[in-house]
Amino acid sequence: MSLNVNILLCLFLCAEVTGIQSLEQVPWLPCMLVDERVKFNDEGHAETEYQHRDAGLQFGHPGDSALNPNTITFLVTGSKVDMRKYIEGAVVEHQLQCEIRRYSTEGIQMRWPGLGAQEHDIWFTCTLRHTDGLFVITSFLRHTPATPTPGQANYHHWAAIADRETLTTSTVMLVLTRSPSVRVGLVKQQSLHCQFDVDHKAADLTVEWRLQRRGERTTLFSHSSRSGQTEGDGVTLKGIGRGDASLTLPLTKQSSEGTYICSVSVPPLFGSHDIALHIMEPPRVSLNVDSTISLVDRGEQKVVCEAEGYYPLDVEMEWFREPSGGGGGLLPEKLDTVLYSSHRHHRDGTYSLSAFFLLHASLHDSGSKYFCRVSHSSLHMPIRKSFTLIVTEFGSWNFVLWLIFGFGFILVMVAILCVMLPRLSSARKANQRKPY
Q: Residue 219: which H helix or E strand, with range?
């Protein structure tokens, strides 16, 4: 059965539910089992083939019949850890991606401390991912096979799973984040969410945060419940005690950008999530002119568009002209005479750039609108700043009026000087005739 049919089945089972307010009431979810098959080539090297198989995640009790008997069913039975209760808010069905994979304990063979566990248990991970990036939840499913698998269950010899098989499992541990990707500005306080849950009081719990940046990996925080040793800061021990391993960062700067890895280990299980942190500062855009420019025919003026304080470096600045009256539906014309300054790097790590051109006024351009468009990765849509050009004819009445006003002002100033200068001269001579 195809995955689309599985989704329709889920919609049927969740009838009357347009948005999942709480997954705790949902009995079945369509999933994709990413199965593995290992082959050895002629040189003796292992090569892994991945097979995508339709599956379903069914919540119920041991012995329940499969709600969809035509596909692989992972029957998740009651446990202290329930992945469904960690999905908060309304979630539409198609926004939830479910993927199941086999899990190898990488040579660690031990009985899980939880109730009902056996030494020959096999493991799977189930990842629920919101398509809009609101959360990622990875749960560890424990399955006790009816017949123990000879040797250790790992990628070299996985137990085969039939197409319509039902595997009874229980969730023993999960790790989740509600911030799989973060965009934040400079000099900001930021918390990276990481949460976990275990079905028993973990005597051997290790929590660790690492930063991977430009090929280097740095440990920011680590805590071991067995040894009681803690290194680094940003995570509270009280928070860890209640399953909260969120990391609070210092005020952000350029070097804060990178991939943060939250890992939780309870042997033989190890779960982690990568959180990508991107530093983003939107540009401040301004023009060196007002919203209207008045020039005479054949006049010139330098017009500058300034984008300041943005990060990262990549920015796109363009100038366009819209003819008067919209140009009969024509698209704005991109100016090809624009020049650019070099990028200016500021002390706070941000950048600035100028885009300018020399505006040559002509009468047929009067009423045209010019706008600067700035695009940047921090913006959902480009910023536009514009002005309107008004051009007057060199011999027009407006220009004549300006000439009359200018000459009139000069004549008035000359008249005032002609009246005042003789008086000042007379006053000076009178002062000189006074006896001391």
A: strand 216-224
